[in-house]
């Protein structure tokens, strides 16, 4: 049975955007599945009593520069959305809703929403932007709009976010395989090595 990489990410995370474009190659190399799991990092910050990275002046300035440099390294566009960090609750909800219809939608929509945010520089915190991305991917925007207000969909994201907290996921991207946690896009090389060797 193929191993599964539990892939946790927050749509307001540029590092999550980078990882979302890189994780498939690692998974395919090792014959793994990727379980795409968006969550709300704000709930993690609240539970930990911490703040977003860019809220720290010196660290924030460096991090923004590093995000842009890393995007260039990986050959990915980086265009900051007009509002950052953005509200990502609707983006995450729609990924779970569509993914429950067909699990392949989790990856497809996640990549499309990330590209809209950081490739095109759009504010996916706005409902109309989320609907536009979904429509471009072939989903009915009226059905999406209805789903976003469905309490079951809201509960699903809340439960998934709590599950991430229970697994001690504290940042984005965050990968778990064989029970081993890897935090950050700069740990994808270690994830690759772990899968190659079976751990060390």
Topology of helices and strands:
Blueprint (H helix, E strand, L loop, with lengths): L3 E6 L4 H7 L2 H8 L2 E6 L2 H8 L8 H17 L15 H13 L2 H16 L7 H10 L4 H8 L2 H16 L7 E4 L2 E4 L4 H10 L3
Parallel strand pairs: 1-2
Antiparallel strand pairs: 1-3, 3-4
Helix pairs in contact: 1-6, 2-10, 5-6, 5-9, 6-7, 7-8
Structure, explained:
- The protein is of the alpha+beta class and 200 residues long.
- The chain has one domain (4-197): Glutaredoxin.
- 56% of the residues lie in helices and 10% in strands.
- It is built from ten helices and four strands; from the N terminus they run βααβαααααααββα.
- It has a four-stranded mixed beta sheet with strand order 2-1-3-4, sandwiched between helices.
- The protein starts with a strand and ends with a helix.
Short description:
The chain starts with a strand and ends with a helix. The chain has helices at 14-20, 23-30, 41-48, 57-73, 89-101, 104-119, 127-136, 141-148, 151-166, 188-197, and strands at 4-9, 33-38, 174-177, 180-183.
Q: Give the domain tally.
A: 1
Q: Which class of secondary structure composition applies to the elements? A: alpha+beta
> Strand portion, in percent?
5-15%
Distance between the termini: 21 Å
**How is the CATH topology named?**
Glutaredoxin
Provide mean pLDDT, rounded.
Answer: 94
């Amino acid at each position: 049975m193929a191993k599964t990489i539990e892939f946790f990410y927050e749509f307001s995370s540029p590092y999550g955007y980078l990882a979302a474009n890189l994780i498939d190659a690692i998974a395919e190399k090792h014959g793994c599945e990727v379980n795409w799991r968006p969550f709300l990092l704000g709930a993690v910050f609240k539970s930990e009593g911490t703040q977003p990275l860019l809220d720290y002046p010196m660290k924030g300035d460096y991090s923004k520069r590093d995000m842009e440099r890393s995007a260039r390294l990986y050959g990915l566009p980086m265009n900051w959305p007009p509002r950052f960090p953005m509200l990502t609750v609707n983006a995450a909800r729609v990924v779970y809703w569509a993914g429950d219809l067909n699990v392949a939608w989790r990856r497809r929509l996640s990549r499309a929403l990330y590209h809209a945010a950081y490739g095109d520089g759009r504010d996916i915190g706005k409902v109309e932007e989320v609907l536009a991305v979904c429509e471009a991917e072939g989903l009915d925007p009226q059905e999406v709009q209805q789903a976003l207000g469905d309490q079951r969909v809201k509960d699903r994201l809340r439960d998934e976010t709590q599950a991430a907290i229970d697994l001690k996921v504290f940042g984005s991207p965050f990968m778990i395989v064989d029970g081993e946690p890897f935090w950050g896009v700069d740990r994808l090389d270690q994830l690759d090595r772990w899968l190659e060797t079976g751990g060390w």
